[in-house]
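Suppose a colleague, Dr. K., hands you the sequence of a protein chain of 139 amino acids and asks what its three-dimensional shape might be. Before reaching for any lab equipment, you can write down a predicted structure in token form. Begin with the sequence itself:
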Amino acid sequence: MAATGIVLNRDGKVLLVRRRDNGNWEPPGGVVELDDSLEGAVAREVREESGIEVDVIRLSGVYKNVGAKGTHVVSLVFLCRAVGGKPTTGDETSEVGWFSAEEAMRLVSRERMRIRLQDALSGRETPAVRSFMTPEKRN
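The predicted structure, expressed as tokens, is then:
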């Protein structure tokens, strides 16, 4: 299980981090540890990857991802408000920045992550629930 934070600052800008492993810009997030609460996991991941402290506002989406080799991850995405800290890179991030919603949508290259961002910023009152299947690769 994973948790991702769509973090907004008081100006309505979106927090993104550039991942060291693949160079992609994405909202911060990661694996929920056994001793984490769900909200605690997203707050911890945001802090570790960006240096920003957050309050969790609400669950914005639940996403099931099934990979080509049968791997699967359920990801919970939370809309969050920045309440402290300063943008700082971590072990997993090479850059951190605040972007307008339009800029963020352009910078986030992975379609499934853009959908999560769009769902969180849509203003909908109930969480989105989506399943993604990656087709098997055939030789």
